[in-house]
Amino acid sequence: MFEFGLDQAAGLRLDMQAREGSPALMPLASPAQPSRGFEWLCRLAMALADAGQRVVVLDACASERGDSGGLVHALADGSEAHLGLDSNQQHWLVMPAAHGLQTLVGTARAGGADIALSRLFAPFAAGTLVLLYAPAQALAGLLGGVSARVLVPVVEQPQASIDAYGALKWLHGAGLCPVLAPLDASAQVLGNVIETAQRHLGLRTPVWAQGSWAQRVPDGALVRAHAHPLSQQASHARGPVAADGASLWS
Asked: Which residue stretches belong to region Disordered (predicted)?
């Protein structure tokens, strides 16, 4: 099983997750035109790498090609278990992932999110932070029923508020916990998204400012749950999701 990272348990971040043998996953909802979110994605990955995280970007808006490389090939190679081990501040691994994600969504549909997530985690080294950049509809298909956080970009681009609201609608409908992550977006654009989501979805959406990404993303990522020691040390109040009374997957 899997659970959120621990927002309020000091010190229990990816260093603990590495000792416990788990990568961590933060899903990211791509805009309708994925290229509009590329700068946002790069800024996020850079912030995390600069903070010492070993980052892997799975770009599910790009298709795997050829006989090697990409998520679909990593999933098929049962011997691969150390991807991301060499990622560092100057370099992080970027993998096309469209076909791989499609495979995992099929797995989730047939056998549930537990099995799909276990397959997704298998190729990656312990302590690696995996950023899965994908359309909200695909993330809903993979993670439906799991109370996972999903970052939704809000950028200063045409139709930014429409893209963000559309993602919130898909994710909320699947039982996920979307979080707005604005980059250079005006207060008006961000406010429109928040107000529309509350009015039409009854959703109070948390906002993570750019300066907080390096801490909040690792803390809020989805990790493999262990009976010891994380569950014993976890606070029952885990940030904005707990405040809204949403159940956590553990």
From this structure: 228-250
- What pTM, to 2 d.p., does this model score? 0.84
pLDDT tens per residue, range 184-226: 989 999 999 999 999 999 999 999 999 999 999 999 999 977 5
CATH of domain 2-243: 3.40.50
Structure tokens at 11: 């010190």
Please give the Cα distance from 136 to 174 (Å, whole number).
Answer: 10
Tokens of 166: 């559309």
State the greatest distance between any 2 C-alpha atoms of the chain, in Å, as a whole number. 49
Q: Where are the domains of the chain?
A: 2-243
E strand residue ranges, the chain: 2-4, 24-30, 54-59, 93-96, 128-135, 149-155, 177-183, 222-224
